[in-house]
Amino acid sequence: MYKLVVLYPHPADPEHFRDYYVTNHLPLVARLPGLLAWRYSFDVAAIQGQAPYFAIFEAEFADAAAMHAARASAHGKRVTADVANYATGGAVVIHYPVRHGTG
């Protein structure tokens, strides 16, 4: 499995972010080709102090090639371009192969 994570710093207008994200952005995301699962939260907390992020999004793909293909598709480019419509604080995007531990 391969994971894409988007970390959103605090926006200028949190209510606009929440409303736009749920009403407009997530329906776009849900139609990404090759997307296996996705989840998000606005309840980001830090163990100590204030969390540097307002929201988090996680997407799962079969592998890196599937994630790259999804992001490079016409729909993926539309999803990426839409971020500017709500994320005034920007976005940090990371991705990685998932490794499973034992224990």
UniProtKB/TrEMBL annotation:
Residue span(s) of domain EthD: 11-88
Organism domain of life: Bacteria
UniProt GO MF annotations: oxidoreductase activity
NCBIfam families: EthD family reductase
Protein name: EthD family reductase
UniProt source species: Dactylosporangium aurantiacum
